[in-house]
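Input/output pair, single chain:
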Amino acid sequence: MDEQEILQLLKQNEERLYRIAYSYLRNEQDALDAYQELTYRVLKNLHKLREPDYIGTWLVRVLINICLDMKKKQRNIVVSDNLTEQATVDNHTFEMSDVIAQLPIEEQELIYLKYFQDLKNKDIALRQNIPEGTVKSRLHATLKRLRILLKGDM
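Output:
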């Protein structure tokens, strides 16, 4: 694939990729920044793509990594005592995303594919090249771990 094909593919999937970024970051500007960073990284690292058939999955994976990096940086920012009430509300908005971020990357991707992209188990199995039964068992284990994490945060 050349740069023009990549840019066209990014343009075609812009809305979907933005929704993914927004679901992780819960902030319009941060989601736009993540999409911009995705464009840069994809063009820079295009030569690292092993299977052009899986470019869509690769784009999502890169975007998720960018979002996770951004969230880590946001957590490391020291907050001053002069916070507004809005900042407190924003912290509660991130709660579910923060809990999901505690899961291993593979489990985060599974949650994203199943619940944010509304893919069926069969479609996830095809995308990840694993049996449908494996998707079901991994999803079950991931949801169980997610429930435990949520109980710990409450």
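The chain has two domains: 1-84, 102-154. DSSP finds nine helices and no strands in the chain.
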